[in-house]
Design goal:
The protein is α+β, with helices and mostly antiparallel strands. The chain has 2 domains: 345 residues, no CATH class; 60 residues. The protein has 18 helices and 8 strands. Strands 1, 2, 3, 4, 5 and 6 form a 6-stranded antiparallel beta sheet that branches. It has a two-stranded antiparallel ribbon with strand order 7-8. Strand 4 and strand 5 form a beta hairpin. Helix 17 runs antiparallel to helix 18. It is globular and about 60 Å long. It starts with a strand and ends with a helix. It binds a DNA duplex through helix 6, helix 9, helix 12 and helix 13. Its EC number is 4.2.99.18.
Length: 412
DNA sequence: TAACACCCTGTTAT
DNA sequence: AATAACAGGGTGT
């Protein structure tokens, strides 16, 4: 296959602002591969993007196919017809966009540390964990695969999806790199049975049905793109307004989350992952079993017998973190999530340190969270029973009151 | 609202 | 060593 490989170029970035060795392995994207020692590669937007990082710079290189690709990339982006002349190469813009580099991460870490002792304790060993801005469609399917699953198997599954249905972009050391398949490709009737055979389990049906639904939504991926945060739009898209910030998130975020729930295999957690990592909604806080455990261990959420992760506790946890961390709560959440991953256990804070910290927090706050959870539960019930917007507004007020009570208690 | 099944795989417990 | 039990970034019924 004829290809054109760009030179390595560099972009000044500190490890405080971005650490690819952590960010690319913390379960946000399931497609990056080590192509050499300290080199990561992935097929994105019609090219293979390769990255290296040293303390001063992020080094990047792209490999473009010069023959036409079998099927178009998954988004109506500038990469649909990859430019092969250096002056038209948009790889730098892609890198900046993919890594959300306009956000000042160091500043955010300082802010989170100043309001949250637990964050302050754990974050230092996990600097540079940054929320990626991935393709919404790829994010959606990736996280449908993630349900009740391990990161390693999710990666295998996504890789198989690309291998069998995605366009071949090129090779590195004989290893093929495929871009992510389009909804239309995955909406073909034979896909479900094939994915089952490939070991996708019950997710084979979810993927097929979701592909059909998205493909039927109309013009390519406009529906998904329309759910993006307009202040942080998809690569190559236009901008707009995102709505006013509240502790349940901006209106655009809530709308996107709700619409995603209509898809098969998409519940609250997966919808939040797509909102955060694919649609640019920074306040989205996906609450999985892991985050729920963190909330119980470090933030005094109900440890009682019947304290499962219900719809009510889900919202209570997410709202609590939004109140604590602010508009980029999802980014902070990702730092603590990463700090708890087994893959990074060598960096964990010692148990003695953690225990000491937990005790400190407990002294300040005890009953408040339990109360918060109960209020949240009542509010959620209302939402389900009466779906009109007036009631939903009341729910928001109820949540906000709960939060205020909690903050008062914390100060007393 | 609370169970329970759902596909499969690597890890831990007998 | 072989096998059971269980959890792993949940969702649908």
């Amino acid at each position: 296959m004829a290809v054109r490989t760009t030179d390595w170029r560099k972009l000044p970035v500190t490890l405080t602002e971005l650490c690819i060795n952590t960010t690319l392995r913390c379960g946000q994207s399931f497609r990056w591969r080590k192509s050499a020692e300290d080199e990561w590669s992935c097929a994105i937007h019609g090219r293979i993007l390769s990255l290296r990082q040293d303390p001063e710079c992020l080094h990047y290189r792209a490999i473009f196919p010069t023959t036409s690709v079998p099927s178009p990339p998954p988004s109506t982006s500038p990469s649909a017809t990859p430019s092969i002349t250096p002056d038209k190469d948009d790889t730098l813009a892609l890198v900046k966009h993919y890594f959300n580099l306009s956000t000042n991460l160091g500043q955010l870490y300082e802010q989170w540390a100043s309001v949250d002792p637990n964050f302050k304790k754990r974050a230092p060993k996990f600097a540079g964990v940054r929320i990626l801005r991935q393709d919404p469609w790829e994010t959606l399917i990736g996280f449908i695969c993630s349900s009740n699953n391990h990161i390693s198997r999710i990666s295998t599954m996504v890789s198989n999806l690309c291998l069998h249905y995605g366009p071949l972009i090129g090779h590195i050391d004989g290893v093929p790199y495929h871009d992510f398949p389009t909804p239309e490709t995955l909406a073909k009737p034979e896909v479900e049975a094939h994915l089952s055979k490939l070991g996708f389990g019950y997710r084979a049906k979810y993927i097929y049905k979701t592909a059909v639904m998205v493909a039927e939504k109309g013009d390519g991926l406009d529906w998904l793109d329309g759910l993006c945060n307009p202040e942080s739009p998809a690569f190559g898209k236009d901008f707009g307004e995102a709505g006013e910030w509240t502790e349940t998130g901006r209106e655009g975020y809530r709308k996107a989350h709700q619409e995603l729930l209509a898809l098969h295999g998409v519940g609250p957690k997966v919808a939040d992952c797509v909102c955060l990592m694919g649609l640019g909604w920074s306040e989205s806080v996906p609450v999985d079993t892991h985050v729920w455990q963190i909330a119980q261990r470090d933030y005094r959420f109900g440890k009682g017998k019947n304290s499962g992760l219900t719809a009510a506790t889900y919202n209570a946890v997410a709202n609590h973190f939004r109140r604590l961390w602010g508009k980029e709560a999802g980014w902070a959440h990702s730092v603590l999530f990463t700090a708890d991953l087994k893959a990074f256990s060598e960096r964990l804070v010692s148990k003695a340190e953690v225990k000491e910290e937990a005790t400190k927090i407990k002294v300040e706050d005890d009953v408040a969270i339990a109360e918060n959870t109960i209020k949240g539960r009542k509010a959620t019930t209302k939402t389900i029973k009466r779906a009109d917007k007036e009631e939903e507004h009341n729910v928001l007020e109820a949540e906000e009151k709960t939060v205020r009570r909690r903050s008062k208690r914390l100060k007393t």
